[in-house]
Design a protein that fits this description.
about 0% helix, about 325 residues, seven-stranded antiparallel sheet, mainly beta, single chain
Amino acid sequence: MFKNLVVLSGLLSIAQAGPCKPLSLTSSESLSVITTATAPPIAATETPTTTTTEAAESTTTPAKDTSLTVVATPSTTAESTTAAESTTAVETTTAAESTTTTAAGTTTTSGTPKPSSCAIDSACPASGWSVDYYANVFEEGYGNDEMTVPASYYLTEELTPLDSGYTDVTYFAQDYMSDLSSYRQTFPNSNYPGKAYYVNYHRTLNGDITVDANSFTLVYQGYYQAPSTGSYELCIQADNANTLYFGEGNAFDCGTGEPTVDAPALVLAATGYHFNNPVRCGTVSLIKGHTYPVRNVMGNKNAVSMFEFTIKAPGGTATHNHAGKAFPVECGLSN
């Protein structure tokens, strides 16, 4: 079994404590097509949902291409940045086969990933993906400016989820500093004396999970069933960080649902901050009726947050509503 990957990195965004630094991941693994037996396709229909965000959020439509696409929306100001103030830089990246870099910094390579699928129990309902809530160290945790904490930290530290649920929606709206005005402030991290922790500030997010909104991590994990054969565009953005793994052995192993600590990401969105959150997109080739493991690690290091993961099927519309196509980890068949 080969692991399939496309890795992207890079971010131009301004944080309260200074500019965010991208995490770079590389790999020399080649892309392979692996035929995997699947259960009979489970009929599902979808009414594509057009993604919406609140007025002050920065929204970018990624450039469409048959290659892996990255769209970055760098910040031009700190907290007061809005969509109308941001500029857009576009990069295209695919498999590490051949690379060409232009004077404008656009990197183009050839190849399109064909992730491996898994068989799932045909009687298992599309009840959504599993979502687990983990603790994240305030200010210095996953999503910090230096990106020194990897998305796998909850695995290496063997953390136990604080809460769990199910969801077929992978989006929650941006909150704002005005939402925090009535909460008492403390300053618990001496390394960041100006960073306020807002006492008792909570948000109820996907899976009906209530988190400490000052700092948290949500891990979305399960199977995605492709409604048609062709090229799919997967896009992510977050305040503060979001890492996407896709395909058997990359997201997790078939049946066991266990991820590999050092698995390379399909798409990495480095830190976003204060309403100007970079969009990262990847293109993969999927087969109708096949079910593909997906794992998405979203982290917030302090105060406000937002998250969105969309899938655009061939001829469809990008949507964060995966009703009828999202199956929990336990639907996997034992190896």
